[in-house]
Design goal:
201 residues, Jelly Rolls, six-stranded antiparallel β-sheet, five-stranded mixed β-sheet
């Protein structure tokens, strides 16, 4: 069963801020980021097989914020002016440090993100991830790892979703495909990547 936003469980430790950025700022950020970001089409390894990711991605941040997931290692490109501006604003308003950002560009409804958790060692325990949406409104689903119960949100232009606490430990999340004719959506997930020397194995 899929529940709507109002029915979210207490152990799903998230915060949603609608219109975190104004429509005018969101329009400006969307246009600037699409034009200045060096997006890539990359592969991903799942269950021993290699697939083309159904979206375009880019990884930016501090030089030591190297991030590996699903058999792929990402070395950050240097912050752009727009990404740095947003980072500073998020840190000020959320009182949390971020040193990197993953950008995902979904060109239409065929572009998607499959079920996964952001639980890599580089993110540390109970990571805080700030996820910004620009462009087309798309549904976003959380699925409980044990019960398989699903919870759905609608994320729109300028909205902020903050995932924290045990969210990555207890839930997976996804941006499903859609057969509808959709405009592009840009998602920014700001994170803090711990250096390998500081991670307890």
């Amino acid at each position: 069963m899929t529940h709507l936003f109002k029915d979210l469980p207490k152990d799903l430790d998230i915060q949603i801020v609608e219109s975190f950025f104004s429509p005018a700022d969101s329009d400006r950020f969307f246009e600037n980021l699409v034009n200045e970001t060096e997006f890539e089409s990359r592969n991903i390894k799942l269950f021993g097989k290699t697939y083309k990711q159904p979206r375009l991605i880019a990884w930016y941040g501090d030089s030591n914020a190297i991030y590996s997931y699903s058999g792929d290692t990402h070395t950050p490109k240097a912050w752009t002016v727009t990404l740095k501006h947003i980072q500073i604003d998020l840190e000020k308003r959320l009182k949390h440090k971020f040193n990197s950002v993953l950008l995902n560009l979904y060109k239409d409804g065929s572009h998607s993100m499959g079920l996964h958790s952001d639980d890599e060692k580089e993110l540390g325990l109970k990571p805080t991830i700030a996820s910004l949406s620009f462009g087309e409104t798309r549904p976003f689903r959380f699925v409980n790892k044990k019960t398989k119960e699903a919870f759905k949100l609608e994320l729109s232009h300028g909205d902020l979703l903050v995932m924290k606490g045990k969210t990555q430990e207890l839930y997976k999340h996804e941006l499903p495909k859609s057969k509808k004719k959709l405009k592009p959506r840009l998602n920014l997930t700001y994170r803090f990547i711990h250096s390998k020397d500081s991670i307890s194995l």
